Amino acid sequence: MIPYGTLANAGAIIVGGLAGVALRSRMGEGVQSIVFQGLGLCVVAIGIDMTIPLPPGELSLLVLFSVVIGGVIGRLLHLEDHMEGLGDRVKKWVGSEDGQFTEGLVTAFLVFCVGALTILGAFEEGLNNNHTLYYTKAMLDGFAALALAATYGIGVVFSFIPLLIYQLSLTYGAFLLTDLVDETMIQMVSNVGGILILGIGINLLGLKKIVVGDLLPSLPCIVLLVLLFT
Asked: Which of 60, 68, 87, 164 fits a 20 to 30 Å CA distance from 98?
């Protein structure tokens, strides 16, 4: 099984990101600022759409517990620090002097990878050899990469590296949960992903620094909690 969808997704990020970098050089600070704010508002809107409605009754508590437990695990593992370290190493490797390189790489990776479409696409590609969802995600991520790179610069392009690692791991590990995925799990993964995307939007708008990278374990946590309690 060749993960054509994931490869197309990475390619779309590279193309869209390079287009955004070219566009960035032609924009003044005022234009970059309004693009940044507009992007932040759109990310917040996407997060709200994914988060609401929360699951009924006690299931909503599982979302709460997954975010709290996942955040504790991520903080103990210093996940965001490791992600920033990876960004710094890639920056040094490519010889970039862009001051926003690492921030762009980390932010773009989080935007591209915390949504429910990433999880669903992995199951479709890994279990059914169906690449349609990832092809759709590739188009969306390509346009998002253009907007992000117009703000953050070349670091966005190199977010394809952790994206490949993450999505390939999901795709080839999907068979482990073949018979365990149902609509409840899909909805709750979407709810948790929406909360993380809200955090990214808040960061983009400069309202408060949310350490979204440390909250990433919330996604596997919600899967485990759903399996245990439903």
From this structure: 164
